[in-house]
## 1
Amino acid sequence: MTRLFDIICSLIGLTLLSPIILLLLIIGYFDTGSPIFKQKRAGRNKQPFYLLKFRSMHVNTQSVATHLVQTSSITKWGKFLRKSKLDELPQLFNVLAGDMSFVGPRPNLFNQEELVQERETRGVYLVRPGITGLAQIKKIDMSTPKLLAETDAKMIANWNLITYFKYIFLTVFGRGFGDRVRY
């Protein structure tokens, strides 16, 4: 049921938001010369996929977990994209393709070994990763691997349509929180 919702809503979102996406692509091109950021992440059953985002950091920034990135790597335009959460819009393509869902554990990098181990132990990779979820609502990011994996497992154990829509609603109205750069 949630997959059907993901397909319908990502199609509607991409259609309605296409003028904004195009505008952000153009501005991003002038900001960094490469407006789309693509990074290999662990998906359902640890299958690799490429997460898409609008680029918020300089092109030569090292590919590491966000909390390990220097603040100087973020462009002025990137700060706006992150604060407004507009950097996440390209993930609608990931949702449409089935790599992600609107709700699920945030997909991690394969080199985040402690988080990978904690998530494997708790069965977190059995579900599609998501744009938002319980950890984002509770402001838990990838800098605390054990707590994040425990929160992800709790979300999965209590998974139902009500919580699915609740997390989307809370994210849209300001409670959702992504991985942050440590200032």
Note: The first helix runs from residue 2 to 32.
## 2
Amino acid sequence: MPHHPIQPLARALRRGLFVSLLATVPMVPTLGYAEESAEAQRSYNIPAGNLDQALNRFASASGILLSVDASLTEGKRSAGLQGRYGVESGLERLLMGSGLMAMQSQGGWSLQAVSNGGPLQLGATQISGQQTQESAWGPVDGIVATRSASGSKTDSSLVEIPQTINVITAAEIKARGAQSVTQA
């Protein structure tokens, strides 16, 4: 059977068309996802007020399960939410400035405190103690001296003198059992 010159051309064209169809198949789910995310956006009209009430309204309107520890939202306010948003962007907007963030978890959402590495507010600290009346020329209570007149010819704290100064106290000499200056 004689081959017609158009048959090989038709086969090549069919193969090219099949290959081009295979190449475009991965694009179809991407287009479907874009449509799906556009449908996931809903219109919200949540007024400003207590954060816990705003979150309840949002969860109800969006149809999500939102787990919240009441101590996290206590005393916090929200600016509200007006407009069209997806679940994640809507929660982010409601929680703005609250120090909280929403995390998607098993079948729903939960809140947790944001650790932003910012400044930490510490409570008041009370320090009490007694000032010792040690003098560079007087006796030292214990083994460690804190003042000397050797490096500066004045009564100065050892940490303020820019030289190494070793003070051997009477208590240390007695503790070592030294009988002479050489032994001390």
Note: Confidence is low (pLDDT under 50) at residues 17-39.
## 3
Amino acid sequence: MATVYRAVDESLGREVAVKMFRTGAAADLTRHQEETRMLAALSHHGLVTLLDIGIDDSDPKERHPFLVMELVEGANLEEALKTRTFNPREISEIAYDIAEALEYVHANGVVHRDIKPSNILLVEYGTSVFRTRARLTDFGIALDAESARPTSDQATTGTAAYLSPEQAGRREITAATDVYSLALVLLRCFTGALAFPGEVIESALARLVEDPDVPDDLPGEWTAILRGMLARDPADRPAVAELTVAFRQAVIAASARHKSEAPLPPIDEPTRLAAVRRYDILDTPPEGAFDRVTALAARAFGAPVALVGLADEDRIWFKSRYGTDLEEIARLTPASTTEGAPVERVWVINDAMSDPRTAQHPLVAGEFGMRFCACAPLATPDGQLLGLLIVIDFVPREVTDEQLATLEDLAGIVVDELELRLEARTLADALDPDAELAAEPDSGQDAASRSSASSAGS
């Protein structure tokens, strides 16, 4: 239908993608106008942005319409699946990104109709959030239902392996079509195999008589989610808005990879402090990357305050603060009393005034007036305690097991982010081991301090 070229916008000096339609026949010009009108009306971070349009009429006998779009660096999901496998967290993140985009698209009255791995771009932005983001592209058949159906000569614009039963059966197409196709994409991410392999007609028609095989042992709630999305009756499939919430929960659950029912190993304070300092984060400003975590923690408990705190020798430094301007507090229990003690995975103080461990603490007895707190440890993969994710309220209260599980999951996200940063810094040092040495003056402790600050800033 078209070829996409990498090009340069000479006016602005930026690289762009130019989608050049192969012919200028009347039908293709109509398709071009439809795609242009639709893309121009859509603006969402999960979609590829349309920048300009035009028609190449250098040959009057063959007019070629084209779209100028933002150039998205990175492979598409189809290419990536041929070279690697994806873990549950990555699949959950891809699902969440695409569901968000589809929720927006459907709200604007558009059905994509061609959800498949090659239309999902995986983008690395190089920011402090070390994860790939997925973006949806190619709305070329979104308004043309006929092109998404198998034909007598086995030609189809949409990929047969990802068609919905209603597309294959020439029935009415609704937003539920995109839900079904997305489920087939995610199922392939988990299993590595096509649910409906074979030639175009064979693949397309198979889904009219049988359901895909969804493994019973997929992590978390994925088995139930995918089976719901793959219902043959479109009316039985969940709406994308529901899936966006479910996928976000799947991201949180998959991110908490350090979660365990067993307590953490007993504290060895010198080893613990070495683990904290390995991340080069104590002497840095508050971390905006964790602000969403503290906001979610406060929302989960309906509490006014949530904090991400890292424990130094005698203080807890808050790297993210929701609902308060506190920068630091004394440790609730000194290192001398915690040395050798096991650490629970999560704990609650329902009424701090009535609890002898906290009744005299300045946050409780002073003006701050803390009466309730729930804490989840921020623990490294080898069990070293870095600090706490803390939720605070000013009235005594009870909590549910679900709230505590959410707090533990969110703590896992914080540690995952710290681990990813450490891995990225280690990789950067390995690729260019002389860079840091060249940047450091040879002045002993001051140089080491600057190096630490520089690493933290990166």
Note: The radius of gyration is 27 Å.
